[in-house]
Write a structure and sequence with these properties.
Length: about 800
RNA sequence: GGGCAAGUGGUGGAAUGGCAUACACGAUGGACUUAAAAUCCAUUGGUCGCAAGAUCGUGAGGGUUCGACUCCCUCCUUGCCCACCA
């Protein structure tokens, strides 16, 4: 009988479903294991990235389950978002209909992969039973002052007609449609994630099982830096311009000041000056450009003189005040002190506009002359031209100048954080309505939590143009004020979808809970997520937001833990011909067609065997055949089972159990598969008995679950393979009586001997010295030194 | 510009201080077959050699060590993330 995955696989998928093989229930007598892969956006079709992500999670999950853990392995859909709106417009349907269809299609494909999900826990963020709790969480945040409204200039995508968080702007374009982003003033809802910045930074220390690069990226994102806010007085006035710097050691070299075009003082300073008309025009032109466009490196650093001067408080020098496009209002105080000799941006600007320069830090061993400088000197060195601080090294000077300025009241030591508040408003239809009402009498009024959910109207008109579709639905917008009952208007913005995905892992613990976002008892048992698996592209935003929400829930008393994800694996991308698979490059391999041809087991095997999980994986059409061939090889063993296992094969089996177990545990699936292949190669030479074969099948079952179940059942086993126990290896059986010892002379391998593993060091030395080849290579020279590494090698140095 | 990875046969990769290239793909040869496919077996880093064997070899150069793909320094290349963050 041949191996026919197309008949075997649906059969076992049905069996698992009918027998609720992967249903997880709380059982405090058993050790739990919560294995989670990042839930997908339901595009309707899975791609190889999904296959890789979910196969890794599935193998680990099945391995943990066979090892005795009470495993929870849920799956759901991150179903709100803009593509549904675009698709609905394109296909003349409605986002919810389109999304539900996509979810069904995608679920079918996921099931065809044979993934061991507890589908009873499925959640879709577009269900009102889910987004009701988004609204509840939002109201709690509003109550605690963590959700607030701010009128501000925001990134605006003209194509999507929606605001974007800075984090969502990629290379000056919208992260989804790549249209160039412009600036627009809107009243926006923000979440005050900055209230949690200390904890978000501090608690990174607790995440010892996260990849260090993700920790580094988060640290840099939150980025705490120490510096000094310096007070520059505008000459002949009482106006103060505060300026923040991390390089206070360069303060004596400040030769001008630069304000952002948006700086509130900019217009005031130019008033009545000869420079006013030119400066006015510059300000207007600069504000029109978005921050992202302005931040492009190739843009020339433009600026105008304001006609005003500032007094440098450390030496009372009057220095010119400029306005320039390279200074951004959002950072620091929106004004900088420029030190062209020691900052490259200032250097270029000063050269361009002929501004003065002065060296205040010079290298240890030589002089630094302004006229000879081709670029700013940004390294450390010795203070010069810095008054009483001359001669100090600049790091010491930094400390001393800072406290000296603070004592004199001309500066203030400050912490500066890079992390900013999180903009969650979207002028979109397909998202969670923000549960807020605007009343002429009462102002901003939260919807009563008893009246949640604020349902998304099913038939809002949207064309993709002209702002919020919800604003056009009268019966949605016009409601009585929850406080005074007078006619008022609902908020028509919806929430960014990152909100939805910031707590779904908690909802999985009790997806039907209807009095809180999640059940406290269930969450206490199942949380935190023992293993989280997903793409490196989520290393900052999604993980940071999820950490923020978790800390917020802790503060509400809903959970006890600080961090949601104990262990994190970031899988590498799937490439074809050295490039990321993408529709635009036309190099996409459709998983479904591979499953049709070779079966899900072969696809799973290939994707794990081709590379370790963390690194990029190169798709290879031929190697998938190799995976299929290997499964056939395992399949055929069933026809040639022998009665009695010989001791060498038995040893090979036990060694494989040891190696495969270790490798699964540490996500080294590629080498685990290699060991299984080696074992199969041995079996082809010597044969194996039924008992040994069954063990091999259990070892293989996390990777090729369908075939393993089929063979297990063909051999007459009553229990499904998912109910079996993980094989244990016997230490006695893998004990080696003899070991191979490498003999080196001066570090070069010259001989190889087989010795009893209990041999003493002295005997081994003598044996090595007496070896013919060793004698040949030592040429009777006396050994200067002999290094013996137990059970491995002898190195004779002559 | 900053940060983080990575660089090993024709290819994917293995080895984290101790026999470099496990396992697989591909290739070549053989067995089976009327034949092909499938399957099974063997060979497969370079150079020299009939062979035994020698010698070179993990991006480049240096260092530490009895011994380095592995640790350290300098450089090169590629990828990813971030970026006028003051």
């Amino acid at each position: 009988m041949d191996y026919t995955p197309n008949t075997i696989e649906p059969k076992w998928q049905k069996y698992w479903q009918d027998n609720a093989s992967f249903k997880a229930s709380m059982d405090s007598s058993r050790k739990k294991f919560y294995c989670l892969e990042m839930f997908p956006y339901p595009s309707g079709k899975i791609h190889m990235g999904h296959v890789r992500n979910y196969t890794i999670g599935d193998v680990y999950s099945r391995f943990k389950s066979l090892s005795g853990f009470n495993v929870m392995h849920p799956m759901g859909f991150d179903a709100f978002g803009q593509p549904a709106e675009n698709a609905a417009i394109k296909h003349n349907t409605k986002p919810d209909i389109w999304t539900r269809r996509c979810i069904d299609a995608m679920k079918e494909e996921l099931k065809k992969m044979g993934l061991s999900y507890d589908w009873d826990r499925e959640v879709s963020t577009c269900d009102s039973t889910y987004y009701k709790w988004n609204q509840w969480i939002f109201l709690k945040m509003f109550e605690k002052g963590l959700a607030y409204k701010k009128a501000s200039s925001v990134n605006w995508c003209p194509a999507c007609e929606t605001t974007l968080a800075n984090e969502e702007v990629i290379d000056g374009g919208c992260w989804r449609c790549h249209t160039e982003v412009i600036q627009k003033d809107l009243d926006q809802w923000y979440l005050k994630i900055t209230d949690y910045k200390e904890r978000l930074l501090e608690d990174l220390n607790k995440l010892s099982e996260w990849p260090s690069r993700v920790i580094t990226m988060q640290t840099n994102w939150i980025n705490k830096s120490k510096g000094v806010e310096i007070f520059f007085k505008v000459k002949d006035t009482d106006t103060i311009i505060p300026v923040f710097t991390t390089r206070v050691d360069t303060i004596f070299g400040a030769t001008y000041i630069v304000l952002a075009a948006e700086h509130p003082l900019a217009k005031e300073l130019i008033k009545g000056k000869a420079e006013e008309p030119k400066a006015q025009e510059f300000i207007k032109a600069t504000i029109a450009k978005s921050s992202v466009v302005r931040s492009k490196e190739d843009i020339k650093k433009e600026g105008v003189f304001t006609g005003s001067f500032a007094i440098n408080p450390v030496n009372n020098e009057a220095i010119p005040i400029w306005i320039a496009d390279y200074v951004l209002m959002e950072y620091g105080t929106g004004a900088i002190m420029a030190v062209p000799t020691h900052d490259q941006r200032d250097f270029l600007f000063a050269k361009e506009h002929n501004l003065p320069m002065r060296v205040v830090i010079k290298p240890q061993d030589k002089a630094l002359v302004v006229e000879d400088m081709q670029e700013a000197y940004t390294s450390g060195g010795v203070q010069v031209n810095s008054g009483e601080f001359d001669g100090l090294d600049n790091e010491t000077a930094k400390e001393k100048i800072a406290s000296w300025m603070e004592d004199k009241g001309i500066g203030k030591i400050q912490e500066h954080w890079r992390l900013r508040d999180w903009l969650i408003s979207r002028q979109r239809y397909w998202g969670t309505p923000i549960p807020i009402v605007y009343c002429d009498n009462c102002g901003i009024v939260p919807v009563e939590s008893d009246n949640l959910p604020v349902e998304l109207p099913k038939d809002a008109p949207f064309t993709g143009e002209g702002g919020s579709p919800l604003g056009k639905v009268a019966e949605f917008v016009n409601v009585p004020c929850p406080k005074c009952g007078e006619p008022s208007r609902r908020e028509t913005d919806t929430m960014a979808t990152f909100f939805d995905s910031s707590w779904y892992f908690l909802r999985f613990t009790s997806p039907l809970c209807n009095d809180l976002p999640f059940d406290k008892e269930q969450a206490k048992y199942w949380m935190g997520v023992d293993q989280y698996i997903g793409g490196i592209e989520h290393a900052i935003l999604h993980l940071l937001y999820s950490r923020f929400f978790t800390k917020f829930f802790k503060d509400l008393g809903l959970i006890e833990l600080d961090e949601p994800f104990k262990k994190l694996l970031t899988q590498g991308m799937v490439l074809k011909d050295g490039e990321v698979m993408s529709k635009s490059k036309g190099n996409v391999v459709d998983p479904d067609s591979v499953i049709k041809k070779y079966g899900a087991d072969s696809l799973r095997l290939f994707i794990l065997f081709a590379a370790p999980p963390e690194v990029e994986l190169e798709w290879d059409d031929r190697a998938i055949e190799g995976a299929f061939k290997f499964l056939n090889r395992v399949w055929r063993i069933k026809d040639n089972l022998i009665e009695k296992l010989d001791s060498n094969t038995e040893k090979a089996l036990h060694k494989a159990i040891q190696k495969v177990t270790q490798d699964y545990e540490s996500f080294k699936f590629n080498t685990a598969i290699a060991s299984l292949m080696e074992l199969v190669n041995v079996i082809y030479k010597t044969g194996i008995d039924k008992n040994g074969y069954l063990k091999l099948l259990v070892l293989l079952s996390p990777i090729a679950p369908h075939m393993s179940e089929e063979l297990n059942s063909l051999l007459g086993e009553k229990d499904a393979i998912t109910k079996k126990a993980w094989p244990q290896f016997d230490k006695e059986k893998i004990k080696e009586e003899t070991v191979n010892i490498v003999i080196q002379v001066n570090g070069k391998v010259r001989a190889n001997i087989e010795v009893d593993s209990s041999i003493t060091e002295e005997d081994l030395k003598q044996l090595a010295l007496g070896n013919d080849n060793v004698i040949k290579w030592t040429l009777n020279k006396p050994a200067k030194k002999i290094i013996v590494v137990k059970n491995k090698l002898v190195n004779i140095v002559v």
